[in-house]
């Protein structure tokens, strides 16, 4: 875990040689908007993506630890209100990252219209906000929400991207109902969404092995990428 980030950065993981397919993803680690789960959500995610032929950009967005007397509340609603300013900063950093990656698409040998965002926990909350953006310049082409929630009240518009959603039923921090709600919002809006909830996995399972069925989610996610055309079947393994 890292915190006290005042200058946002992007760490680039080039797609494995001979497997690059033009798809790119920005990675938003979790950490309750007060820190970053840099290894499990960030670097390990980027390593997996690059091994599949996707160029990954891990965003070290601005965060700071709680100040004296600062409370994030007990309920999700309290958390949403208490972290509204922090979340806006994360979304702003992520939007700038989207602009940067698209404007440097040739440099990184990627397609500007094949850019996704994957977020975990708090990063997933910011990812949903990005997917709701009305400006296509700062909206990803596809989104991935892992053990997250939708904190904004608005429904996705017709231009919102397809979304992949994953969570565990036994998550003690963000109940899986929050992921179900994201799926329901996309479904009600007539937009593509895929939801996977595993019985066990807790919070923050990432791409690590836990000897549980949740270990299979990367393969399911890979299949979704193939179905959406962001990963060629020949590159899937």
From TrEMBL:
PANTHER family according to UniProt: AB HYDROLASE SUPERFAMILY PROTEIN C4A8.06C (PTHR48081), PEPTIDASE S9 PROLYL OLIGOPEPTIDASE CATALYTIC DOMAIN-CONTAINING PROTEIN (PTHR48081:SF6)
Keywords from the named record: Hydrolase
Span of domain Dienelactone hydrolase: 45-210
Organism annotation: Sphingomonas telluris
Gene Ontology MF term list: hydrolase activity
Record Pfam families: DLH
Claim: Translocase is one of the keywords in the record: no
Name of the protein in its database record: Dienelactone hydrolase family protein
Hydrolase is among the record's keywords: yes
């Amino acid at each position: 875990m890292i915190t006290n980030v005042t200058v946002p950065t992007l760490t680039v993981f080039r797609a494995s040689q001979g497997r690059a397919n033009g798809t790119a993803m920005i990675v938003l680690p979790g950490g309750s908007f007060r820190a970053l789960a840099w290894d499990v959500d960030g670097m390990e995610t980027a390593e997996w993506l690059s091994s599949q032929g996707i160029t990954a950009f891990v965003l070290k967005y601005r965060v700071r630890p709680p100040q004296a007397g600062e409370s994030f509340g007990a309920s999700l609603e309290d958390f949403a209100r208490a972290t509204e300013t922090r979340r806006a900063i994360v979304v702003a950093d992520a939007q700038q990252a989207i602009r940067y990656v698209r404007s440097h698409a040739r440099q990184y040998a990627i397609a500007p219209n094949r850019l996704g965002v994957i977020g975990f926990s708090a990063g997933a909350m910011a990812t949903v906000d990005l997917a709701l953006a009305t400006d296509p310049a700062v909206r990803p082409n596809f989104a991935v929400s892992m053990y997250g929630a939708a904190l904004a009240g608005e429904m996705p518009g017709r231009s919102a991207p397809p979304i992949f959603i994953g969570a565990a039923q036994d998550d003690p921090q963000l109940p899986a109902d929050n992921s179900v709600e994201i799926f329901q919002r996309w479904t009600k809006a007539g937009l593509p969404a895929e939801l996977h909830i595993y019985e066990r996995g807790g919070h923050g399972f990432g791409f690590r092995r836990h000897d549980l069925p949740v270990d299979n989610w990367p393969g399911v996610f890979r299949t979704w990428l193939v179905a959406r055309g962001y990963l060629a079947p020949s590159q899937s393994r």
